[in-house]
TrEMBL record:
Residues 10-340 form the Enoyl reductase (ER) domain. It holds the Pfam family ADH_N. The keyword NADP applies. The keyword Magnesium does not apply. It comes from Baekduia soli. This is Zinc-binding dehydrogenase. One of its GO terms (molecular function) is oxidoreductase activity. Keywords: NADP.
Amino acid sequence: MKAVRYHEYGTADVLRYEDVEKPVPGPGEVLIRVEACGVNHFDIDLRAGVSRWPLPLPHQLGVEFAGTVDAVGEGVEHLAVGDGVWPQHEVECLTCRYCRAGQPNLCLDAKMMSVQFPGGYAEYVLAPARATHLLPDGVTAEMAAAGQVAFATAWHMIVTRGRLQPGQTVVVQSAGSGIGHGAIQIAALNGARVIATAGAEHKLQTARELGASETINYNEESIAERVLEMTDGEGADLFIEHVGGDLFMDSLRALRKDGRLVTCGGHGGETPPIDLVELFRHEWQVIGSRIGTPAEMILTMKLMGEGKLKPHVHAALPLSEAPEAHRIIEGRKQTGKVVLVP
């Protein structure tokens, strides 16, 4: 079968489209014929060797993917050959203190697709059957591959960690990204007033189409100043942030007193400067957020099937064009998601 792997860390040019042995499912496993695989910035971090995850080389990327069951291993009874499925991008252990407490996304012994398991950049991929789910009615493999990480992560940030209430004002940073375009829809679905930021007008236009009532071009104006103008000097209740860097402090200043900033990334700079005096005087809350829980993944998949959440696919490229998919992400050219189609 064909797969895309890299044998050394580096630029997109290290990705190789090559022949590898087709895997065989063992007990408790399913073999999935991949029909679509989402491309995430996490893939770029892994390929470049800056993810802080130790990886064996050669390595096969692809956190989120979906397709059809090609074969099942011993003991698998709830799935059958021909079923349309999506595997969780992270598989919890079920036994640690966090799993027992209902926080499986903080599992102490979780295994992740594209890290501990070979990912979806291949024609066929193995997945643990207990963490593989049927595609809901109305959800295609491409939708599932484009929506699993973006929507579940955004739901966890906004609803679970951000504690959004109807009628509150939410600012969504980097609206053209996967997380950003998902966060706009989820905030609007939960009754919020949504202000979206991006660095290009075409991304802001898409943000308005997805549910943002107001937009800010952060390359041309201060986020904090514009948000304060839009909220009569009060500030936003919640800020969804995953950029970091020079924009981080400006994002905090866009909050009202006792406002909440939830962050899940820092591709613009992982150690931004923070004015601690401003932080404590305003009682701003800076909240870390990881991936969504399995329950949140299942919920957002259901909402996609009902048409309430719609992943925006910027480009669907053949698996052999994985290097170009990475260049699109690195160049910040996309609005929404890029997917690979084996």
